[in-house]
Specification:
The structure holds three protein chains of three kinds.
Chain A: E1 4-10, H1 14-25, E2 30-33, H2 42-45, H3 60-71, H4 73-76, E3 84-92, H5 95-110, E4 115-119, H6 120-126, E5 136-145, H7 151-161, E6 165-167, E7 172-178, E8 181-186, E9 191-198, H8 204-210, E10 218-227, E11 237-240, E12 246-249, E13 255-258, E14 264-265, E15 272-273, H9 276-289, E16 297-308, E17 315-318, E18 325-329, H10 334-349
Parallel strand pairs in A: 1-2, 1-9, 2-6, 3-11, 9-18
Antiparallel strand pairs in A: 3-5, 4-5, 7-8, 8-9, 10-13, 10-16, 11-12, 12-13, 14-15, 17-18
Chain B: E1 10-13, H1 17-28, E2 33-37, H2 61-75, E3 79-82, E4 85-90, E5 94-99, E6 102-107, E7 110-113, E8 117-119, E9 132-134, H3 135-145, E10 147-148, E11 153-157, H4 160-171, E12 178-181, H5 185-195, H6 199-214, E13 219-221, E14 223-230, E15 234-241, E16 254-257, E17 260-264, E18 267-269, H7 272-277, E19 281-284, E20 289-292, E21 305-307, H8 317-334, H9 340-367, H10 372-376, E22 383-385, E23 390-391, H11 392-400, H12 406-413, H13 426-437, H14 441-444, E24 456-457, H15 458-462
Chain C: E1 6-7, E2 15-20, E3 23-28, H1 33-39, E4 46-47, E5 54-55, E6 68-71, E7 74-77, E8 88-90
Parallel strand pairs in C: 2-8
Antiparallel strand pairs in C: 2-3, 4-5, 6-7, 6-8
The chains are: A alpha/beta, B alpha/beta, C mainly beta.
Chain lengths: 373, 478, 95
């Protein structure tokens, strides 16, 4: 007979791993299962940007708190994820972009993000690597980046230190509701718990289906690229008004180029491929913003899935109609905000009042959900 | 962006023996063929075109075979797209290239991948010193560029290439100071019967042995390099005995002063393109490592994608030619240019030849196989990933921190993240990880293939473009 | 320079001048730059970016990236780059 855990978290990305970590530290007996190694999907392959200027307005209060968590990762996570806190610049190269930037920066500022508008010349003083072609820039001191590929190592160690039962490379295939809670069917056999958290990234739609809930999740295929190590070309996080560029140079010298240009592929197929013309477009934009990048060589490009709900706001909260089942995912700019939202969910699971409201999924379900008792 | 050139029925990637023969065969059977290679001439590594001298300058059977095939290629209707770096290959089958005139795109319904292999060098402390070079590099210097290492050079590693390089340089009056052979005489004798199945090559081999013997080059059988020393360049090396499995064993170590070293331990199939496209992979230790799963005609698990030559398993040049013929015929058949009868008839002879060569290929592949015990003997401070200076002890620490597959290992250590994209370290890093966890190589996997297939400068991708021309997608929601 | 790599075949290619870290050198036009540098005694080409260890050409076939150095201001693999008259070569890598 397998152990009865207090909580099983299905999916060991940022969301699942952070929920598990705080639940375990709150005294629960927690198990985490992942179909692969921890943080090897979106949480390990994203651009690592920790920015307010690409965050949705409704998420700004969460993102600010999450940014603080990342900046102090050593204290609560216990391990370095290569976080660098620096200035962020969001650029506008045309009148139209300037208008968009001014509007968006204003909305984000209202939500609490300390973004100020500066001229292109002022931006050049903050970031000498910039092109002189920017007309206007949004400047935010709360910005920065983590080294996403270190996330798995950091969380793995933290979870084990917190006494979490960790099973990697063990896909779940079903969730059964029992009189005492849940039985999660996995490749390596059933696991039992009083509570369950579904944190399966783009795959939460399928997992919610196991509970009879229809939660449509759209899959984005984000393209990313990285240069080889080059001499210092920039010291800030650089983006553009419409959010389709993120650019930063890591302390070891590589420059990561992202911004959500879409590749092709599907979560069902598991494989995705880069569209070369979009990679070229992304790189043109990057070199337009920071011209010194032209001299760098592209070392690698890759894709990662991102999950999005119908309203592109997070799915974080209890599963309607199913006691002790929770879901967390689809957090836009989820790498930035994920840890804080996961901490809030852990609070709710532990019976504490979360400091900020969650994002319950009732709004995303059809009027008469298929939920079963 | 310019739309792709679509006027080919089949694109062949790689202009070595397999690629050349497949291109010629496909074109003879009615397909419009584009043959792509980064070099300015066809030949690949084994038939690399002599550059320094006139084509007749360096006489060897390979040089003659290469020239013959280059002549056949020139007479064929194959379109040669040389001097172009392949940086992306995507679905059905789009190939993005970078040439002297910038970025170009081709697309064809059939793709034959014949991109060959790269060398495996088992690391030792100091192998990153300037003056230490690959054995394959030595053959390029010898065959194509007419360049000899400085007087005090040593030759180390395993397999027939050792003898070929030693003899080649001995005949030019530049013998190595010593040969350090991982194999022993008994290993060579064991390979003799299969060598004898290829009389031409056997004769060539006897010639090599005679040259080596008459040059009185000291040979250290069942020895390997323990470390290389030097400041900005190799100045000495230390060698020591190994057992039949390649494991370092107790015994006298010998120091040799030298200012260059050529070292190689076999070949690793360069299977990045089929991997990038998602073709099924299989680990075959005796064929050099991870290869695409193929039928006898080179058909992979993906429709109209063929993989042949050493990139689909280390079998050598002669087998590569036959594989080229079979894949060329299969592509013509699969494209409906030849019927089943003609296909069966034309391929029967090639399949029979293929079988005849297998004893020899097996023996050679066995000789240059990865020896896990040799990897186990790599010292803790030896750099494994040259690009990122990741040592064996870094990899072992990551394994103990929970990395169980090679992509996790990459995340934990940056091993394989540099510009060589893990080609130089991949096989050995995976072997170290597997040994650390007592897993087999299947379980630890392979690096996920990523574009660009070789680093390219961002400048070269830009083209002449205005900001307004960049097709920026619509903004994300606020 | 001591113990340089030696040319053993008389080349029929025209010799041209290139500049290597400010020093004028001659090399056969069209020869892979890595070969010309070895023949001219330049065995160390760069330092590795992480631990700054000396490196030289290793594979000569475009795989290892050890000979990636600055030519006319761009990083290129010397083994894949044909010599051209007037080339300006800097023996340093991407960092």
């Amino acid at each position: 007979m397998s152990t009865m855990h207090d909580l099983i978290v299905i999916g060991g990305g940022i969301n699942g791993a952070t929920t598990a970590l705080f639940a375990a530290r709150g005294g629960m007996d927690v198990a985490v299962i992942d179909r692969g190694p921890l943080c090897r999907e979106a949480s390990g392959v994203n651009a690592g940007t920790l920015t307010m200027q690409m965050t949705r307005v409704a998420l700004i209060p969460y993102a600010l708190r999450a940014h603080h968590m990342w900046a102090t990762a050593r204290e609560w996570l216990g391990h370095d994820v290569g976080v660098v806190v620096c200035d962020g610049l969001s650029l506008a190269f045309t009148e139209q972009e300037a208008e968009l930037l001014a509007f968006r920066a204003g909305k984000r500022r209202e939500a609490g993000a300390p973004i100020t508008l500066i001229t292109g010349q002022q931006a050049l003083q903050i970031e000498p690597g910039l092109s002189d072609k920017a007309l206007l820039a949004g400047h935010c001191r709360v910005d920065g980046y983590a080294n996403a590929y270190l996330t798995g190592l950091a969380f793995r160690t933290a979870l084990l230190d917190a006494g979490v039962t960790l099973t990697e490379n063990n896909p779940a295939t079903d969730i059964l509701q029992t009189s005492s809670g849940f039985e999660v069917v996995t490749k390596q056999g059933p696991l039992r718990a009083k509570r369950v958290v579904i944190a399966g990234g783009v795959w939460i739609e399928e997992m919610m289906g196991w509970l009879g809930i229809d939660l449509p999740i759209k899959t984005l295929v984000n393209q990313l690229a990285v240069t080889e190590r080059i001499p210092t070309a920039m010291r800030t996080v650089v983006g553009i008004a419409n959010g389709l560029l993120s650019l930063k140079q890591y302390p070891h010298g590589t420059v990561v180029i992202g911004g959500g240009w879409q590749g092709s592929g599907s979560r069902e197929g598991g494989t995705c491929s880069l569209l070369p013309e979009r990679l070229v477009g992304n790189i043109r934009l990057a070199c337009h913003a920071v011209p010194a990048l032209k001299d760098a060589r592209l070392a690698r490009a890759w894709t990662g899935f991102e999950a999005e709900t119908r309203d592109a706001l997070p799915a974080v909260g209890p599963v309607p109609g199913i006691h002790n089942a929770y879901v967390i995912g689809s957090i836009h700019s989820g790498y930035t905000s994920g840890p804080y939202l996961a901490k809030l969910l852990a609070d709710q699971i532990l019976g504490r009042e979360p400091d900020l409201p969650l994002f319950p999924i009732d709004r995303l379900l059809k009027p008469e959900p298929l939920a079963q008792g | 962006m310019v739309s792709p050139h679509c006027h080919f029925d089949v694109l062949v990637l790689g202009g070595g023996p397999a690629g050349m023969v497949s291109a010629i065969t496909a074109s003879q059977n009615g397909l419009r063929v584009g043959l792509i290679d980064e070099q300015s001439e066809a030949g690949g590594q084994i038939w690399r075109a002599p550059w320094a001298s006139s084509p007749q300058g360096y006489e060897s059977p390979e040089a003659r075979d290469g020239n013959k095939m280059r002549d056949r290629l020139a007479l064929s209707s194959v379109t040669c797209l040389f001097g172009r770096r392949i940086w992306s290959v995507t679905d059905r089958y789009r190939v993005d290239l970078l040439g002297a005139d910038g970025v170009e795109t081709f697309q064809a319904p059939h793709l034959i991948v014949a991109l060959g292999a790269h060398e495996r060098v088992i690391p030792f402390p100091g192998w990153t010193l300037p003056g230490v070079m690959g054995l394959a590099a030595a053959t390029i210097m010898l065959k194509a560029h007419g360049l000899a290492p400085p007087k005090d050079w040593v030759l180390a590693g395993v397999g027939p290439l050792l003898a070929a390089v030693a003899a080649g340089y001995a005949r030019k009056g530049h013998p190595p100071k010593a040969i350090i052979d991982l194999s022993g005489p008994s290993d060579w004798f064991a390979a003799l019967p299969s060598l004898a199945s290829r009389p031409g090559l056997f004769k060539q081999g006897v010639g090599w042995v005679l040259s080596i013997v008459s040059s009185r080059i000291p040979i250290y059988f069942r020895h390997a390099i323990r470390r290389a020393e030097g400041q900005d360049r190799i100045s000495a090396c230390l060698i020591g005995p190994v057992d039949a499995d390649g494991k370092s064993i107790d015994g006298p170590e010998v120091g040799i002063a030298c200012d260059a070293m050529m070292v190689g331990n076999g070949l690793v199939p360069g299977g990045e393109v089929p991997r990038l496209l998602g073709a099924d992979q299989v680990y075959r230790h005796e064929l050099g490592g991870w290869i695409p799963e193929c039928d006898p005609f080179g058909r992979t698990s993906l429709e109209h994608l063929y993989a042949i030559g050493d990139g689909a398993g280390i079998r050598g040049g002669a087998v590569a030619c036959i594989a080229g013929k079979l894949a060329g015929l299969a592509a013509a058949h699969d494209a409906g240019r030849i019927d089943a009868g003609a296909f069966a008839h034309q391929s029967a002879q090639a399949l029979a030849e293929h079988r005849k060569l297998s004893a020899f290929s097996d023996a050679m592949a066995h000789m240059i196989r990865l020896r896990p015990a040799q990897v186990a003997s790599i010292e803790a401070d030896a750099v494994i990933c040259r690009c990122e200076d990741v040592t064996r002890q870094d990899l072992v620490a990551a394994a103990r921190a929970g990395a169980r597959d090679v992509n996790q290992l990459k995340h934990f250590t940056r091993c394989g993240m540099g510009p060589c994209q893990g080609r130089m370290c991949g096989d050995v890093a995976a072997e170290i990880l597997a040994q650390e966890h007592r897993l087999d190589r299947q379980a630890v996997g392979y690096w996920t293939a990523r574009p660009p297939l070789r680093p390219i400068s961002l400048q070269s991708m830009l083209g002449r473009v205005d900001y307004a021309d960049i097709p920026i997608p619509k903004p994300a929601p606020l | 320079m001591v113990s340089a790599f030696t040319r053993i075949v008389a080349s029929h290619h025209a010799l041209v001048h290139i500049n290597v870290d400010g020093v004028d050198c001659v090399a056969p036009a069209g020869e892979p730059l890595a070969t010309s540098l070895l023949a001219a005694g330049y065995v160390m080409l760069r330092h590795s970016p992480n631990r700054h260890n000396p490196r030289g050409a290793f594979c000569l076939m475009g795989v290892c990236q050890e000979c990636a150095i600055h030519v006319d201001g761009q990083i290129v693999q010397a083994c894949m780059t044909p010599v051209r008259a007037g080339m300006v070569v800097q023996l340093r890598g991407a960092v």
